[in-house]
């Protein structure tokens, strides 16, 4: 019955399980675990014996069971082997147990499923494809659903996709109008029998193609109608959806990379070493076997007076053959099995050191660091590339209103800044806000001057705050406690509105035609005359309102570069002043916006408004005409000032990034966020600086363009490079580089590469890959924006595969899981809501800055210690084994052991665990009379130790050996320190000299980044919300909107959604290059 | 609400030196003064030790007489196993030029006899030798049982191949008077061997205890008849037997045969003069191209007459001194360079 055919398309019929069962679609149960109780033993053993060492020792064990060959007792091998295998198995079992647990937890979540015309609670795992399920507000979505209807008008619903792509702003989904009419009518929903024909399961988060056939008509489906598993329903009290993909077929699961067995490079080195040593062992065995054959034929023959050969063992060649195997067993200690055990133990210890580290404990969330994988510690010291998520990892995803410049005056200086600005430091307590009851408690502002100005009634300041309170797309709501809650579509807009609120300009509510704000205690209702929405070419947003006095005003906010061109010439002085301020803000990594207003005259506006209506009604060139009209009215603006919003970085990010790049570790930022946001953060945490020679932006839309851009950037780079080095341009060189022979060119100067998801998809194609990688590796900083989870993993794979570098991925959300899994080391940020990243990670801690300690302290130490241990171990084993090789020449190559190896393994362990005392006690026990009395054949060494240790000669030999082995090392070290001192030696010497000279003075250099860069329009913001607001589609009609004297802007109510969709697909979400927007 | 801080505290890792990896550590810093001091003292110590050892080793006296070739006719006789019952004796005169003072030990020394062969070493039964069960012969292949299935005592290849020459040293005071030099056959073994590893079955009559067993094929007499003169030196407790049973680690080895009984004429040791070894030649070595010799030697506090340890100490000491001078030179030149560098 199992279908081996690859699913080409999917046909799903609603409410018809029997029909859907024909196709054998996966159900909604997920498995991330590897074993169950029955399969654990065979699969686990099979996996373990795939390791070279384990297999080798199994063979050895079998050899030892043959009495003719066995020169050692069998338990010397089986004890360590069983120990290793049990330890690994127990670890695997516990890991898998936790995976089972988390699977169960997810599979047993409840959701309401429509079965037999009734809503029933079902576990997630029992949800089948074609079922209709009901979701409620703030619930996780159980499977990939086709949205049928929702509580909001027009079948709208809002989802948060943070788990999928890391973006926290809400996305709108809307149902087909035919299905949204079903509403919450259970009977009608139960009768719904539409058939969906759509693409097979895939991992593309932003694409969906399908057709719904229902009631003899066909409706095309796209990504806007689909809610994906992993999303959370927000601001929507309920919605109904039909399951299209379930369980492993969902886009979330398809995006999670396979769990891979991670190995450290030392492990791999060990495996090859073991092979080499094995070869060496064979050589030794052959030499000794040949020796034995020769001896047997030349001398042994005559020696048979004293030692008969058994019949049939006469041939000396056969004796040599047996000797070969015997020596393989005797000399087996060169291939160290206990090494594997000891390595595991050491790594476990290192993991505990990480868990115990107080410097990686985050007290605010009471989360200590955790080494979830205990086998990777030394790899931490070898990291060359770090792939970091942005939101939640580098940034806190909190936007705060930090500073502003109003009418040429800066408010909100950072307290402990430079000397001339210290007047605020005396009063460090935050500003006491006017309307305490309404204020957002988390908001803090340290500059009292602004408050003063407000109280003084400075009209410019009031106007400034009024713009903040009026010109936005925020929706307000009152929660049960009567508090005002803002629902924001982009967090920085929320920051601005919240700031205005705390300064007394409280945005209260809005209808399609009005905006009500509370201005310093008095309620004022503005009539919203027009909403000039944001888009990516305009990079600004304006509202035209009529205030109660009847004046018509245009309030505008937008990117400074755009807005400054629209200013009235009289603003020149203010403009240059504000411009300076903006540079200062940008230098601190703040996201800036310019604020302006314009008084409109009634007549002019009416004319303009009429033209706008005409344009709206037009069928041809509608968008162009509207854009022209917007352009027309947004001119001669009066500048009010600028705002600076901080996308709050996590603590210590800048320092961490700096010190990591000092350690030559390259940091790549992979984010699902928009390009501008990503660049902004790049600047904020010093990854991008103004000192950089060039920043390449790759934003091509097809493979050819991307390749061209990459080539150009590369030429540019090498050209500039030559310029730098030679002073004149050398003619272009053909660059036909093979993928696996990419040589890192030495690049003088700093470069940065910024590439967005769409271009990345093309760049990751096989023939462009090499160009991308080459360019990326020459750049100091690489930022990839708008990438899907799988692309993150692909980028990591690319670097891992072709650069042979050790990679680390760090992230906090479900969208980082695949990247975390595919990197050599995955780090999850713990202490947050989502657990997926942590569960998939190898190490987890609460703050990005702990990465510094993890890599530079724990990683380094682990690596050092492991290397020292390995060197010692190999030395010890070789010393021990080669004695037997040597002794072979004296004992007629007869595989007699010179030292009692049978107990060596055991003694060895005790010895390693640090007890010479135990060593001696065991030695003496085994050489004691008592044990000889009990087992005379097994312990025939009685008297040896006693007799030899009482001889003075022995002690003299021991002493001489010690001297002869220690002194050369001392000489070597002494000469090394003298002749070739390392950096640390020099530093130590310098420190000593300093200590003698004078007590150390602590002076910490303070670095402040100075940058002249202006941030762009930094909204994580989408076009279309203006229309939603003015059309009132997203507002629940509580009371009919008040009729105003003005003619209302009329939009065709059936076309507005199409309008919105069209706009969003055309929207240029970056500076005009990236042509997609994910909703 | 009060539980929260406790909860926080419990997750905070302990602030112990071990857990925070702040255990005190010391790194040796090799300053010139310290290193050179250590080197010079070690050098002096090694040199002194070496000289003492060499002197004491040279103060020992040793005589070795290889009698494989000298008793050629006996060797030839023994090459044929069928002549086992024919006795062959051989007398080797030698002249002792100087007195051998103190305790004198007599050894036999074998060349090319592989007592360390794996199968040979294993071919013994410690359970039998400890006297618990004289019929325990499991480990003794190929000398477990005789042809008529009676267990061999002592079993195994080691015991079977026991050295069975008798060596008698006599002092020829003049051409007519010969005195047999008194040799003690006791005290040749380790204490543990005599009192722990080898025990006779507890019975007054040894022959009774060994009834139902047979002697090893190469032996002329059974184990309980090894020493006719001293009944306590029989059975498993025979000193020669114990000495032989401790398998040597190398194919050339010497084993203690007897020690001088310092009485009467020999109270100070062996006086100079003419001596002769009277050897009953039983042990065949020419068949495996081995050799055997008899050794007379005195001992000092640090063992026999081997110069190796003394030379090793001397060489180490000398090298240490050389190296320390070299290091001193390097250090001084470097220091001068640095100084001049700073002065610039």
UniProtKB/TrEMBL annotation, chain A:
Predominant location category: membrane
Any GO MF annotation of the entry: ATPase-coupled intramembrane lipid transporter activity
Gene Ontology annotations of biological process type: Golgi organization; phospholipid translocation
Chain ranges passing through the membrane: 72-90, 273-295, 315-341, 878-899, 911-932, 953-975
Residue ranges, compositional bias (Basic residues): 992-1012
EC nos: 7.6.2.1
Protein localization: Endomembrane system; Membrane
The P-type ATPase C-terminal domain, residue ranges: 838-897
InterPro entries given in the database record: ATPase_P-typ_cyto_dom_N (IPR023299), ATPase_P-typ_P_site (IPR018303), ATPase_P-typ_TM_dom_sf (IPR023298), ATPase_P-typ_transduc_dom_A_sf (IPR008250), HAD-like_sf (IPR036412), HAD_sf (IPR023214), P-type_ATPase_IV (IPR006539), P-type_ATPase_N (IPR032631)
Active site residues per record: 389 (4-aspartylphosphate intermediate)
Catalytic activity: ATP + H2O + phospholipidSide 1 = ADP + phosphate + phospholipidSide 2
Domain of life: Eukaryota
NCBIfam families per UniProt: ATPase-Plipid, ATPase_P-type
Protein name stated in the entry: Phospholipid-transporting ATPase
Originating organism: Mandrillus leucophaeus
Phylogenetic placement of the source organism: Eukaryota, Metazoa, Chordata, Craniata, Vertebrata
TrEMBL record, chain B:
Alphabetized UniProt keyword annotations: Glycoprotein, Membrane, Transmembrane, Transmembrane helix
Family annotation (PANTHER family): CELL CYCLE CONTROL PROTEIN 50, CELL CYCLE CONTROL PROTEIN 50C
Protein's name according to its UniProt entry: Cell cycle control protein
GO cellular component, one term: Golgi apparatus
Family assignment from sequence similarity: Belongs to the CDC50/LEM3 family.
Residue spans crossing the bilayer: 35-57, 307-334
Organism (species): Mandrillus leucophaeus (Drill)
Subcellular location(s) per record: Membrane
GO BP term, example: phospholipid translocation
């Amino acid at each position: 019955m199992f279908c081996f055919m690859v699913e080409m398309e999917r046909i799903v019929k609603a409410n018809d399980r029997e029909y859907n069962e024909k196709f054998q679609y996966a159900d909604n149960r997920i498995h991330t675990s590897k074993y169950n109780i029955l399969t654990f033993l065979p699969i686990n053993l099979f996996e373990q014996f795939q390791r070279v060492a384990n297999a080798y020792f199994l063979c050895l064990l079998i050899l030892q069971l043959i009495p003719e060959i066995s020169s050692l007792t069998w338990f010397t091998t089986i004890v360590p082997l069983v120990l290793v295998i049990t330890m690994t198995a127990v670890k695997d079992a516990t890991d898998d147990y936790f995976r089972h647990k988390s699977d169960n937890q997810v599979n047993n979540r409840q959701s309401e499923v429509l079965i037999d015309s009734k809503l029933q609670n079902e576990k997630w795992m029992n949800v089948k494809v074609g079922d209709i399920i009901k979701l409620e507000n703030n619930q996780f979505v159980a499977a990939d659903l086709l949205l049928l209807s929702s509580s909001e008008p027009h079948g709208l619903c809002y989802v948060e996709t943070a788990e999928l792509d890391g973006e926290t702003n809400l996305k709108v989904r809307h149902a087909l109008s035919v299905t949204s009419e079903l509403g919450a009518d259970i009977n009608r929903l139960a009768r719904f029998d539409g058939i969906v024909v759509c693409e097979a399961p895939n991992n593309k988060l932003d694409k969906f193609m399908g057709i719904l056939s229902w009631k003899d008509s066909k409706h095309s489906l796209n990504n806007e109608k689909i809610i994906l598993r992993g999303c959370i329903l927000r601001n929507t009290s309920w919605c109904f959806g039909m399951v299209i993909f379930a369980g492993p077929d969902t886009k979330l699961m398809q995006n999670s990379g396979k769990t891979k067995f991670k190995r450290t490079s030392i492990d791999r080195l060990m495996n090859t070493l073991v092979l080499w040593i094995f070869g060496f062992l064979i050589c030794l065995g052959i030499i000794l076997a040949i020796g034995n054959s020769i001896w047997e034929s030349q001398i042994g023959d005559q020696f048979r007076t004293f030692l008969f050969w058994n019949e049939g063992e006469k041939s000396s060649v056969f004796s040599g053959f047996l000797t070969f195997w015997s020596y393989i067993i005797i000399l087996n200690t060169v291939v160290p099995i206990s090494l594997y055990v000891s390595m595991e133990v050491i790594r476990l210890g290192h993991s505990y050191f990480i868990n115990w580290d107080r410097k990686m404990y985050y007290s605010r969330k009471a989360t200590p660091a955790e080494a979830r994988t205990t086998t990777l510690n030394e790899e931490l010291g070898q990291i060359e590339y770090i792939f970091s998520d942005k939101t939640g990892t580098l940034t806190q995803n909190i936007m705060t209103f930090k500073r502003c410049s109003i009418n040429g005056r800066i408010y909100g200086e950072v307290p402990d800044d430079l000397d001339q600005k210290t007047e605020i430091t005396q009063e460090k307590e935050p500003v006491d806000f006017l309307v305490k009851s309404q204020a957002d408690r988390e908001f803090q502002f340290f500059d009292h001057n602004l408050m003063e100005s407000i109280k003084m009634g400075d009209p410019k300041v009031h106007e400034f705050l009024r713009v903040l309170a009026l010109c936005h797309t925020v929706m307000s709501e009152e929660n049960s406690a009567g508090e005002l809650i803002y629902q924001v579509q982009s967090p920085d807009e929320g920051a601005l509105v919240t700031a205005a609120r705390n300064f007394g300009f409280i945005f209260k509510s809005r209808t399609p035609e009005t905006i009500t704000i509370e201005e310093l205690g008095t309620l004022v209702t503005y009539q919203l005359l027009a909403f000039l929405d944001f888009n990516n070419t305009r990079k600004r947003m304006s509202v035209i309102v009529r205030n109660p006095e009847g004046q018509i005003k245009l309030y505008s906010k937008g990117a400074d570069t755009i807005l400054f061109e629209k200013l009235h010439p009289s603003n020149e002085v203010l403009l240059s002043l504000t411009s300076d301020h903006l540079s200062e803000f940008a230098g601190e990594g703040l996201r800036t916006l310019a604020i302006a207003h314009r008084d409109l005259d009634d007549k002019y506006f009416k004319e303009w408004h009429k033209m706008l209506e005409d344009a709206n009604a037009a069928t041809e060139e509608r968008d162009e005409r509207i854009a022209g009209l917007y352009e027309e009215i947004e001119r001669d603006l009066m500048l009010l000032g600028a705002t600076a919003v901080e996308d709050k970085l996590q603590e210590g990010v800048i320092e961490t990034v700096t010190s990591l790049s000092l350690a030559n570790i390259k940091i790549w930022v992979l984010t699902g966020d928009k390009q501008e946001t990503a660049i902004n953060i790049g600047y904020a945490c010093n990854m991008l600086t103004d000192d950089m020679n060039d920043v390449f932006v790759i934003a091509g839309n097809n493979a050819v363009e991307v390749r061209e851009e990459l080539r150009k950037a590369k030429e540019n780079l090498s050209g500039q490079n030559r310029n730098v080095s030679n002073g004149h341009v050398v003619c272009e060189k053909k660059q036909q580089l093979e993928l696996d022979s990419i040589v890192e060119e030495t690049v003088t100067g700093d470069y940065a590469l910024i590439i967005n998801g769409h271009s990345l998809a093309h760049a990751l194609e096989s023939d462009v890959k090499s160009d991308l990688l080459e360019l990326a590796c020459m750049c100091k900083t690489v930022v990839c924006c708008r990438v899907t989870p799988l692309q993150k993993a692909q980028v990591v794979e690319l670097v891992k595969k072709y650069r042979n570098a050790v990679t680390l991925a760090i992230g906090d959300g479900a969208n980082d899981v695949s990247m975390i899994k595919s990197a050599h080391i995955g780090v999850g940020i713990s202490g947050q809501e989502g657990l997926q990243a942590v569960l998939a990670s190898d190490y987890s801690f609460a703050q990005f800055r702990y990465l510094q300690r993890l890599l530079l302290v724990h990683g380094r130490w682990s690596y050092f210690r492991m290397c020292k241990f390995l060197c010692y171990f190999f030395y010890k084993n070789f010393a021990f084994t080669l004695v037997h090789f040597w002794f072979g020449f004296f004992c007629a190559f007869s595989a007699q052991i010179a030292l009692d190896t049978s107990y060596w393994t055991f003694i060895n362990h005790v010895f390693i665990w640090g007890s010479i005392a135990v060593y001696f006690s065991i030695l003496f026990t085994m050489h004691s009379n008592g044990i000889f009395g009990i087992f005379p054949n097994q312990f025939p060494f009685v008297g040896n130790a006693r007799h030899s240790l009482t001889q003075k000669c022995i002690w003299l030999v021991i002493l001489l050996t010690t001297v002869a082995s220690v002194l050369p090392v001392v000489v070597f070290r002494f000469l090394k320190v003298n002749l070739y001192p390392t950096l640390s030696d020099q530093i130590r010497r310098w420190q000593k000299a300093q200590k003698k000279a004078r007590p150390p003075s602590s002076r910490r250099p303070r670095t402040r980044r100075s940058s002249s860069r202006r941030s762009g329009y930094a909204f994580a913001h989408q076009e279309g919300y203006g229309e939603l607001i003015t059309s009132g589609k997203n507002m629940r009609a509580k009371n009919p909107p008040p009729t105003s004297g003005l003619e209302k802007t009329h939009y065709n109510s059936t076309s507005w959604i199409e309008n919105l969709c069209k706009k969003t697909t055309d929207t240029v979400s970056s500076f005009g290059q990236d042509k997609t927007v994910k909703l | 609400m009060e539980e929260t801080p406790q909860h926080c505290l419990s997750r905070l890792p302990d602030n112990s030196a071990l857990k925070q990896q702040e255990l005190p550590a010391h790194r040796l810093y090799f300053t010139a003064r310290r290193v050179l001091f250590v080197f010079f003292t070690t050098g002096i110590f090694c040199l002194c030790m070496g000289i003492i050892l060499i002197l004491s080793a040279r103060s020992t006296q040793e005589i070795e007489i290889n009698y494989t070739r000298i008793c050629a006719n006996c060797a030839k006789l023994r090459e044929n196993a069928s002549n086992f019952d024919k006795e062959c004796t051989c007398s080797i005169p030698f002249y002792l030029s100087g007195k051998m003072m103190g305790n004198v030990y007599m050894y036999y020394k074998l060349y090319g006899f592989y007592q360390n062969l794996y199968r040979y070493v294993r071919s013994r039964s410690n359970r039998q030798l400890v006297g618990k069960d004289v019929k325990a012969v499991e480990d003794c292949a190929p000398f477990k049982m005789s042809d008529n299935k009676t267990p061999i005592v002592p079993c195994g290849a080691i015991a079977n191949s026991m050295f069975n020459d008798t060596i008698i040293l006599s002092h020829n005071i003049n051409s007519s008077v010969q005195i047999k030099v008194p040799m003690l056959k006791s005290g040749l073994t380790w204490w543990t061997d005599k009192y722990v590893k080898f025990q006779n079955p507890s019975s007054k009559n040894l022959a009774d205890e060994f009834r139902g067993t047979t002697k090893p094929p190469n032996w002329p007499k059974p184990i309980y008849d090894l020493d006719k003169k001293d009944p306590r030196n029989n059975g498993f407790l025979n000193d020669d037997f114990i000495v032989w049973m401790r398998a040597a680690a190398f194919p050339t080895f010497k084993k203690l045969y007897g020690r001088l009984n310092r009485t009467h004429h020999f109270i100070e040791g062996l006086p100079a003069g003419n001596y002769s070894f009277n050897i009953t030649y039983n042990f065949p070595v020419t068949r495996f191209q081995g050799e055997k010799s008899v050794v007379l030697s005195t001992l000092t506090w640090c063992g026999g007459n081997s110069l190796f340890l003394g030379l090793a100490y001397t060489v180490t000491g000398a090298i240490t001194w050389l190296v320390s001078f070299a290091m001193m030179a390097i250090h001084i030149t470097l220091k001068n360079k640095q100084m001049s560098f700073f002065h610039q």
